From TrEMBL:
The UniProt record lists the keyword Repeat: no
UniProt name for this protein: (2Fe-2S)-binding protein
Molecular function per GO: 2 iron, 2 sulfur cluster binding; metal ion binding; oxidoreductase activity, acting on the aldehyde or oxo group of donors
Pfam family, one: Fer2
Residues of the 2Fe-2S ferredoxin-type domain: 13-89
Keywords assigned by UniProt, alphabetized: 2Fe-2S, Iron, Iron-sulfur, Metal-binding, Oxidoreductase
């Protein structure tokens, strides 16, 4: 493939991204990542730029309900998708159950990874409910039923999100609280008193 000598304006596209339920009209360079759009163009700074290589999970967001590393996604390829950041999880002043559980369980220290951890946990719980197996899911598990969420399952499924402070035990407890509340039919709850 020969190098292109197109002017910079021809390497940009106008598009609409649906971020946290709101359409955002943007004109972007084709090389712009979704993470850079969120942080630099829209001021949504919850997703963090950690490694910029998809290895730490600090930039995790939800794309059509599935967790994704926004540092690896080209924004122009996300036009028809629903993107949810940590800022879009709460309903007004009411925190998402995982946000509340992280606070209740003190599942953070410096907080840098926390938005990515929370978005990843939201996506992970959806994967579990949909019956998606992980590396530690028993081979005998029913593929049409939700996966039983053990501590090992949570650790395995959250292993793509790194915490340099080592808040992992509390993160697991927060996810367990929300999963237990949902299993008991109290999806808006999930934090211990």
């Amino acid at each position: 493939m020969e190098p292109t000598n197109q002017p910079a304006a021809e390497q940009r596209s106008a598009l609409v991204l649906h971020i946290n339920g709101t359409p955002q009209r943007l004109t972007l360079d084709h090389r712009t990542t979704l993470l850079d759009v969120l942080r630099e163009h829209l001021g949504l700074i919850g997703a963090k730029k950690g490694c910029d290589h998809g290895q730490c999970g600090a930039c995790t967001v939800l794309v059509d309900g599935r967790r994704a590393n926004s540092c690896l996604l080209l924004a122009v390829a996300q036009e028809e998708r629903q993107i949810t950041t940590v800022e879009g999880l709460a309903e007004g002043e009411r925190l998402h159950p995982l946000q509340a559980a992280f606070l209740e369980r003190d599942a953070l220290q410096c907080g840098y990874c926390t938005p990515g951890q929370i978005c990843s946990a939201v996506g992970m719980l959806r994967e579990v409910a949909d019956g998606f197996p992980s590396h530690v899911t028993p081979a005998t598990a029913d593929p049409t039923a939700p996966v039983e969420l053990s501590t090992d399952e949570i650790r395995e499924r959250m292993s793509g999100n790194l915490c340099r402070c080592g808040a992992y035990p509390r993160i697991v407890e927060a996810v367990e609280d929300v999963a237990a509340a949902a299993a008991a039919g109290r999806p808006g709850q999930g934090v211990s008193s």
